[in-house]
Design goal:
Layout: H1 2-26, H2 34-64, H3 73-92
């Protein structure tokens, strides 16, 4: 359960960076430092969907086994809603 909690928190941080990357792309925001911008892009665009999907799959498996009651509700709901946004951004909207 501690591994899932760590993964959920890490996925939440990467999801926040995903939202920052989304604002940078859609709002045409620019950052001065290229190193920070590169880190934001890697963690936001690449790591966030992978970590979020794996955390939500792991949590849903634990819920089906009735063992996933230890996580906070706001964290699981927020990660799931951002996963829906990521699915929309990556798979539905690109066309």
């Amino acid at each position: 359960m501690k591994g899932l909690l760590f993964l959920y928190k890490l996925a939440f941080l990467c999801n926040l960076l995903f939202l920052v990357c989304l604002l940078m792309q859609r709002g045409h925001l620019s950052m001065g430092n290229q190193d920070i911008k590169s880190l934001l892009i890697i963690m936001g665009w690449l790591l966030a969907p992978i970590l979020n999907l794996s955390a939500n799959i792991w949590f849903s498996i634990l819920l089906t086994q009735k063992k996933g009651r230890g996580l906070s509700a706001w964290l699981s709901i927020t990660n799931f809603l951002i996963l829906l946004v990521q699915i929309f951004i990556y798979f539905i909207q690109p066309a």
